[in-house]
Amino acid sequence: MVVELLAFPLVLFLPGYTLVNLLYPRKGELDREYDVLYRITLGIVMSIVVVVLLGFFLQALGVNPEGMGYFTGVNLWVGLSSLTIAFFLVGWWRGAYPILGRLHPALKRPLPREPASILGDLEADRGVLTKLRELAAERERLRKEVKDAARRASLHTGSLKEHYETKRLELQKKLRGIDDALTQLESDRAKELY
């Protein structure tokens, strides 16, 4: 009974879970919100893959005197245990288990450095990106107001037409200023990146 209870997680969870932690050691690397769920799900799927590949490997080793190959319970148990321990140790080496640092400071491993993003360091440029978003929103608002002023100028005559034409020209001037500011921010950002 105890063997079955130990075999279930060894066959269907532990090898794949440790393999996923080996490949993706940082928390939140698979997904910011559902990282644990992805790790568990991928762990189950990868465990099945590891068991199948280990079975193929054991069978390909040759035929033992009983004619079954080496695909036996003992060999499967030893192989899965060895792979799980190996995946765990390499994952620990890569920094996947920071909680072990609570047991003893010597067990704590630093996480690997975050790879550089294609778009650059977005966290550092949060102010620039916020400014770009604000300017883009202001630009859209001004474009709508220019269209509205042009429409109203075409509908009216006399002093109202002059008022809306003047308003349209003022709004177009502001819109050009926003376009210039956007262009300047984009060129400054491009100089930083390249």
Average of pLDDT:
84
Distance between the termini: 63 Å
- Give the helix proportion (percent range): over 70%
Give the biggest beta sheet: none
Give me the strand/helix succession.
Answer: HHHHHHH
Q: What's the shape?
A: elongated
Q: Which structural class is indicated by helix and strand composition?
A: mainly alpha
The residue ranges in which pLDDT falls below 50 over 5 or more consecutive positions are none
Strand tally: 0
Q: Assembly type of the shown chains?
A: single chain
Notes on the structure:
There is one protein chain. This protein is mostly helical. It has two domains: 2-107, no CATH class; 126-193. It is 71% helix and 0% strand. The protein has seven helices and no strands. The chain has helices at 2-12, 14-23, 35-60, 73-93, 100-103, 126-155, 159-193. The protein is elongated, with a radius of gyration of 31 Å.
List the helices and strands and how they pair.
Elements: H1 2-12, H2 14-23, H3 35-60, H4 73-93, H5 100-103, H6 126-155, H7 159-193
Descriptors for this entry?
0% strand; mainly alpha; 7 helices; 194 residues; 2 domains; 71% helix; elongated
Short description:
This protein is an all-alpha fold and 194 residues long. It has 7 helices and no strands. Helices cover 71% and strands 0% of the residues.
